[in-house]
Amino acid sequence: xxxxxxxxxxxxxxxxxxxxxxxxxxxxxxxxxxxxxxxxxxxxxxxxxxxxxxxxxxxxxxxxxxxxxxxxxxxxxxxxxxxxxxxxxxxxxxxxxxxxxxxxxxxxxxxxxxxxxxxxxxxxxxxxxxxxxxxxxxxxxxxxxxxxxxxxxxxxxxxxxxxxxxxxxxxxxxxxxxxxxxxxxxxxxxxxxxxxxxxxxxxxxxxxxxxxxxxxxxxxxxxxxxxxxxxxxxxxxxxxxxxxxxxxxxxxxxxxxxxxxxxxxxxxxxxxxxxxxxxxxxxxxxxxxxxxxxxxxxxxxxxxxxxxxxxxxxxxxxxxxxxxxxxxxxxxxxxxxxxxxxxxxxxxxxxxxxxxxxxxxxxxxxxxxxxxxxxxxxxxxxxxxxxxxxxxxxx
Length: 395
Ligand SMILES: [Mg+2]
Description:
- The protein is of the alpha+beta class.
- The protein has two domains: 4-97, no CATH class; 147-384, tRNA(His) guanylyltransferase (Thg1) (Alpha-Beta Plaits), CATH 3.30.70.3000.
- Helices cover 49% and strands 10% of the residues.
- The protein is built from 13 helices and eight strands.
- It has helices spanning 15-27, 33-57, 67-70, 72-96, 105-118, 138-150, 173-182, 192-209, 235-260, 283-309, 320-329, 337-341, 366-369; strands at 4-5, 12-13, 163-170, 213-217, 220-225, 273-280, 343-348, 351-354.
- It has a six-stranded antiparallel sheet, with helices on both faces.
- Helix 4 packs antiparallel against helix 5 (105-118).
- The longest helix is centred in the last third of the chain and has 27 residues, at 283-309.
- The protein is globular, with a radius of gyration of 24 Å.
- The relative contact order is 0.12.
- Bound molecules: magnesium ion (MG).
- Magnesium ion binds next to strand 3.
- It holds the Pfam family Thg1.
């Protein structure tokens, strides 16, 4: 059996070694069902591709053409399964090429993207109402996050040829939500009003800096500003303006929510954000920040939904797939789009558009959306704008 070249780099990957590794995963105690289904299909494809024609060759009177294995339906299944197998091998090779010692964000982000493109989104026969992304081990996301965070240590005057990221995080958010709910401004559970508040705050920061992309979930938002901006080059100017714009917009929205219920916002109910600035040399590096945050959203959304569902404490220690199965069985899926996948906003031509609304059967999960195209490029589709308003950046 000829060795198959790795999809990334020149390291050869032996298909039999990959197969042995896959079987090892299937036998491992506690193997996730989605992993078993995906990898089992790949192994099935292997069997059909290599064993069925050989069975035809073992006839009494020399080589025999197996009618069954040559029928159009089987040929079509064989080629389909063969494709699945090749993808599984390439994906395994790409994942095997990931290097935990790699300190170069550009090359690591390129490898992670390749793995995402090759791996199929997970499927699970007990999860019907939630979009699953390709499975990538947590350690690789942790590694990506470490590399991204290293780019947020920048203290010098900002270069004009780099992408700038602004990553804002709500401070004491749990306390803020508890006070809003105790004062009657919000009902208990996940609240779409807070999702809209975060989207509005994210949009305001995007418009302030001429950003092309913003992504928000939970109490955080990440904003990407393209190179060649004419704004001041001091890091302190950027982070203080971003944090104050987000804080002001969020508090204005909360005051409006209180007014709708005939209430006044108490003095102690005050949202505020901290902000980190990152400098990235390429769109790929900048995009990796979004992918890292989207992977975090994937884990946190299931945990939050379990918390709001009033599930027993032991359920909180389940892994993400087990939590989703728990929610599915109890009618807790689908989650609201923003809660499940966050909101990806694209800016341009004075407009800000929601890109992961799920319109036109497009994925809502960023880790699936990025498999088709870069999250930073492509036309702004007016059909995908969120309903109710035509959001415009201020002049
Ligand atoms: Mg926070």
